[in-house]
Design a protein that fits this description.
This protein is an alpha/beta fold. The chain contains nine helices and nine strands. The strands form two sheets. Strands 5-6-7-3-8-9 form a six-stranded mixed sheet, with helices on both faces. A three-stranded antiparallel sheet has the order 2-1-4, with helices on one face.
Length: 275
């Protein structure tokens, strides 16, 4: 079974953790008849940094929304470990920062705790700790219009993480940023992940980003959206600029690119579903 082999590949960091979630034969057909996903089988392990890589229209974001509980599958099931995973343990970072424009940075990060009934005063230590973790100490009184695109995304990540979720879902969060800012946020995200040891499912269409961040990459194909292949990124953490310029990284990116090209060229015929 390929999934087991991939998950336990040498150097794949946290890929040997226990199963957290399995998507079993998951399909999603929209009301207009478009099959966004078909027979998706995928295992997510506790502590994974898993990237969903693929072209537009392959169902990456749809899969993320199903995991978040923002949508329900048409067929198949999501099998959370244990009886009933509490979805309050999921954080979600969208493609756009989606900050409250009238609220300062502190209040934007406080929002999830506020919705749980935690007062501003009681939330303050957690909010300030998370702002420090995303390198925004000193910006708690700034409003979104005063922030750069990268800083807004840092606020969005802090807001998603302030409740200490077990799972962080990220839908192409850095796609709109310039390359230098994107590299910095990739580095900081890995630092945060290694410090907190939560599980990340990260949607991207960037081969380079998926390889730099992940211990496992799942490549998806379109029409209908499905798992085309997956592979381990057999490189140790922490990963830094030396890794980003290394022959190992270049070789892994070539491997991922070859698989992605295969996914793009594939048709809706017989396919490997990850098992």
């Amino acid at each position: 079974m390929m999934q087991e082999k991939v998950a336990q590949a040498p150097g794949s960091a946290s890929g040997e953790g226990p199963m957290l979630l399995a998507l079993r034969g998951v399909g999603k057909v929209f009301s207009n008849g478009v099959a966004a996903l078909s027979d998706v089988n995928l295992t997510i392990r506790d502590g994974d940094f898993l990237s969903l890589l693929g072209p537009s229209g392959c169902g990456k974001s749809t899969a993320l929304r199903l995991i978040a509980g923002l949508s329900t599958p048409t067929s198949g099931l999501l099998d959370w470990r244990g009886s009933g995973f509490d979805r309050s343990n999921i954080g979600f970072v969208f493609q756009e920062p989606t900050l409250l424009p009238w609220a300062d940075v502190f209040d934007n990060v406080w929002l999830p705790l506020r919705l749980k009934g935690v007062s501003r005063a009681k939330a303050a230590p957690a909010v300030m700790e998370m702002l420090a973790r995303v390198h925004l100490t000193g910006f708690e009184n700034a409003v979104p219009r005063e922030l750069s695109g990268g800083m807004k995304m840092r606020v969005s990540i802090a807001r998603a993480m302030v409740t200490k979720p077990r799972v962080l879902l990220m839908d192409e969060p850095f796609a709109a940023l310039d390359e230098i800012t994107r590299f910095k946020l990739n580095n900081d995200l890995l630092e945060l992940w290694q410090g907190e040891r939560f599980t990340v499912v990260f949607v991207t269409h960037s081969v380079f980003e998926s390889v730099f961040l992940s211990n496992r990459v799942v490549v998806m194909a379109a029409r209908p959206g499905r798992v085309f292949s997956e592979f381990a990124v057999a490189a140790p953490y922490p990963r830094d600029e030396a890794f980003r310029t290394s022959p190992v990284y270049a070789a892994l990116c070539r491997q991922a690119s070859d698989v992605l090209i295969g996914a793009i060229n594939s048709t809706a015929g017989p396919h490997h579903d990850g098992h």
